[in-house]
Amino acid sequence: MLTIRELLGRLLERFAGKPRLMPDSIDRLFTAVCEASEADPASSRTAKLRQEGVPKMAKKVAEEAAEVAIEAVSGQREALIRESADLIYNLVVLWSAAGLTPQDVYDEMDRRERLYGIAQKLPKSDALKFKPAPNAAAAKASQGFWSPLSGRRS
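Given the sequence above, the corresponding structure tokens read:
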């Protein structure tokens, strides 16, 4: 098993001088999810999931998170990669329905990094005090599904 130092060393070697791809990938996925949300649910898994509502989307996120955990424990690397991608997809679908964007999450991650460091989870006491600034997306999300691309509720 690799130590954290060894893992970070390998990551730095692998990605040295290369652009960070993950945020770009999530941004592209978010755009595609928003576009697919407007499609026919009979031909679009994303549109069908959005039509089924936030409870179904939340259930899918929980199911995929459990599958990620199971694959991590079982040591099945390739399965863990696939399940992680499924988890990210379902999380992005849920974000889109809730009126969140990837940038909202990036901003929170940046805030936490400034306060606690890059690899820190927000302490529970601070999480209870934190109230994100209200935004138009959140207000629209509370009124139903909202597509950030079209600005329309469905």
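Confidence is low (pLDDT under 50) at residues 135-154. Try to locate this feature in the token string yourself.
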